[in-house]
Specification:
- The protein is α/β, with parallel strands linked by helices.
- It is 38% helix and 14% strand.
- It contains 10 helices and 8 strands.
- A 4-stranded mixed beta sheet has the order 1-2-7-8, with helices on both faces. A 4-stranded parallel beta sheet has the order 4-5-3-6, sandwiched between helices.
- Strand 7 and strand 8 form a beta hairpin.
- Helix 6 packs across helix 7.
- The protein is elongated and about 70 Å long.
- Bound molecules: 6-O-phosphono-beta-D-fructofuranose.
- The site of 6-O-phosphono-beta-D-fructofuranose has 11 residues, from loops.
């Protein structure tokens, strides 16, 4: 929009997209409010092309920008798409189910080396503010321990639990850690990276620090796998394709109704419309009951 680059999306052009991930029009998380004249240029493009409505598909950053553009008078509708599943007002975002499946497959495969070589395998997944991917894939993959941003961890307690497990004769352990997990204050230090246009530090790498600590404190051989963008690519699951299709149809209906400033959302299995502002702002964190009332029972078991 800022550069005025367009791709006509006819039905013909969209054939064959169901099994594809990512974006086919080359959009990325750009913040027009951080680009010189960005909002004015984007608005001018829409006007010039006679675009009736802007459908923004993305996570907190994209939909946050969409909400601001709506305030500037642009007819906007939001569709919740992020592997992180951290948007409020929707029970699920599309992309999440696929990422959980990829992470679960990876954990299943890591069990082989953990068991054959009696190693601790630390698997890092995405999740900046919320640990949905870590929690779901950790439960599904039978992780020994799941570390998420919502629950600052104590490295001493993590090592004690691994040691208790070894004493019981269980020498293979999988620790799943979300990229945004943080140690309890003063227990371990992390290095921080570059900041993007939305003010987010580039994450990725906590698993390395964690593995060094675990190996140093316990003496158990500890190896690292960082899944990174593997979680964000490839073929979407059938569930995600159906959810995305339902959201897409609902977004078009919303445009036809002229009901702008809304995000389509999943609530109690039904597609509903909520104000865009309800979806963004505060991240949707993991259900504490799923962490404390389910996952935790299996930690270091
Ligand atoms: O918001 C999705 C997400 O995958 C986050 O989990 C992750 O921190 C971020 O995007 C990485 O973004 P980028 O590829 O732009 O560094």
């Amino acid at each position: 929009m800022i550069d005025g680059e367009t791709v006509p999306l006819s039905v013909e052009a969209l054939r064959g997209t169901l099994p594809r991930g990512g974006t086919i029009i080359g959009t990325s998380r750009t913040n027009p409010f951080k680009v010189d004249g960005g909002v004015e240029r984007a608005t001018a493009t829409l006007k010039e092309l006679g675009v009736d409505a802007l459908i923004a598909i993305g996570g907190d950053d994209t939909l946050g920008v969409a909400a601001k553009l709506f305030d500037q008078g642009i007819n906007t509708v939001g569709v919740p798409k992020t592997i992180d599943n951290d948007l409020s007002a929707t029970e699920l975002t599309f992309g999440f189910d696929t990422a959980v499946q990829i992470a679960t497959d990876a954990i299943d495969r890591l069990h082989t080396t953990a068991e054959s070589h009696h190693r601790v395998m630390v698997c890092e997944v995405m999740g900046r503010h919320a640990g949905h991917i870590a929690l779901w894939s950790g439960i599904a993959g039978g992780a020994t321990m799941i570390l998420i941003p919502e629950e600052p961890f104590d490295i001493g307690a993590v090592c004690d639990a691994l040691q208790r497990r070894h004493e019981k004769g269980n020498y293979a352990s999988i620790v799943v850690v979300a990229e945004g997990a943080t140690p309890k204050e003063g227990t371990m230090s992390l290095v921080s990276g570059e900041v993007d246009q939305f003010g987010h530090v580039r994450l990725g790498g906590i698993a390395n620090v964690l593995a060094t600590e675990i190996e140093g404190r316990t003496g158990y051989e500890t190896r690292v796998t960082i899944l990174g963008h593997i979680q964000r690519g490839g073929t979407p699951t059938a569930f995600d394709r159906v959810l995305a299709t339902r959201f897409g149809v609902a977004a078009i209906d919303t445009v036809h109704d002229g009901d702008f400033g809304k995000m389509v959302a999943l609530q109690a299995g039904e597609i509903v419309r909520v104000p865009l502002t309800a979806g963004v702002g505060a991240p949707k964190l993991v259900d504490p009951q799923l962490y404390h009332g389910v996952a935790e029972y299996f930690f270091a078991g």
